[in-house]
Write a structure and sequence with these properties.
The protein is 46% helix and 22% strand. The protein has 15 helices and 22 strands. The strands form five sheets. It has a six-stranded antiparallel sheet. A six-stranded antiparallel sheet has the order 12-11-10-15-14-13. β7 (158-166) and β8 (169-178) form a beta hairpin.
Length: 598
Amino acid sequence: MNRNENSRSAIVLCSSPLERAGESELIGRENGSAGLQYLANFAHLILTLSGRFINLCGDELNNEISAALEAIGNFANVDRSYVFLFSEDGARVTNTHEWCSPGIEPAIAQVQDVPVEIYSWAMPRFKRGEVVHIPDVSLLPRDAEKEQRTMQNQGIQSLINVPLICAGKVLGFVGFDSVRTRKTWRDEHIKLLKVVGEIIAGTIGRERVTARLTRQAQLEKMVAHISTRFINLPTEALDDEIGHAIEEIGVFTGVDRCYLFEFTADRCHMNNTHEWCAAGIESHIDRLQGYAVEDFGYSMARMKRGEVFHVPRVADLPATADREKKEFEQEGIKTLVNVPIMAKGEMIGFLGVDAVHNHLVWSDDDRRLLRLIGEIFANALDRRSTEERLRISLNEKEVLLREIHHRVKNNLQIVQSLLYLQETAMNGQGEPAALDAFRHSQSRIKSMATIHDRLYRSRDLANIDFGDYLRALIPDLVGLFNHSDRISIEIRAHEVRLSIDAAIPCSLIVNELVTNSLEHAFPDERSGKVDIGFFRTGDTRFELSVADNGVGFVPAAVWPNPGTLGLQLVSDLVAQIDGEVSIEADSGTRFLVRFPGI
């Protein structure tokens, strides 16, 4: 049979009128062909309904339930038919579907998400799978006084409620009310109503399982998507990504607010650091700052044990949670879930979702996946905290290291100044060799002091731009020997960084070779030029050259067994950096040092 606009009327079967006996009606007759025909037609109606409920889902299922209620209501000549469903935890009940005959006032609005206690007499019977059949409401026992008052307020004289049972769990009940007259249902018809209950319950149960599995798959996909975005995420992008993630969670789950609280370093206070709100929902992040953790003892005690704090109904919180209850009610929250964020076994904050417009029930699977998102946030926040501690530690060490370089530079400058004062005090009266020794010592100290000065000023305390260093050192070195007016210096150096272990030996090598050129390459006040080059020749190799166009000398006479202290220092320093040196004496002298990076 096709499901179309006329499907509802198609299942309303014709039957003979019900027999009346005074003010009461009996559903079907004990004997006679009319009773048998009625029973046969009822069975046929149930069979038709059964076929129509196969493979239904979503709105299609809701429409078919409404159609079935109308069909049975019309067939049985009742005034109201309906379906009630219990909440997931069985604590609340909601009238989800209702049909009323003409002139009968609907009652569905009166029973929306109410405590099951309003059915305290009937509930134990539903849970035992029993049919509640009340031919005369006025005859209900005293312990059913609450239900009796509710029924009489709705004008009900008789009713029958059949539990909806699927996989051993009572999902709710389907019911039929008689308002205009009292009615009594026969056993064979009650059995058919129980079949109706089984059909509706089975379809609802199947739909719930399908919906739960679909939602579960979608939620798992969302968690995986969020997780991949946090892999290797730079800490500077963490806040933005958390903001995107909580928005995605909020939109997917249909909550009204999603947020993140982080504890302060002392774990005594907490701040709302991230928040997403659905359209029309007031933001609270600005005022939720600096809250004392101890003021929320009821929820914190549970979350610190690693438990998810799930409150299906804020109004139901116990007196021991009075502080939380007042805060939640002030924010208009009906339902919330708070998931602890744990790092190294210690709670550092929590992820929360709020429902403001409606009560929501979160399944164990939902809470488990929210916990996974909490773990993603925990790992990211803990990594940022660790990096921040390392950054602070490194900053402290950097300040200390800069101070060391600064003090070493100052101390070397003091030594250099003392040597200069000693040289000046001799006033040319000392031996020339002694004056040269003072001058050479000053230049060597100056070269090392400049290294520490450059490191002190650099952002990189481990490496130095050696080209920049040469351009700072050489002018002072030329000035020390008073040759700047007749000897020019050319520096050709790429921007190459050397570690301090390589920079200091190289600086001393340059100092000795340039000093050698200044002192010996241009005798008799000759003018000339000194060329200094420093280049990277491979991924890990460097080339340092010092050349002049002076008088030159015979390389074999001075190398590899140099006779002067300066060239002996060069030989030792080259060996220290695992390098090799070569000398060319063509139109001057050129020292070439090749060495690997250190």
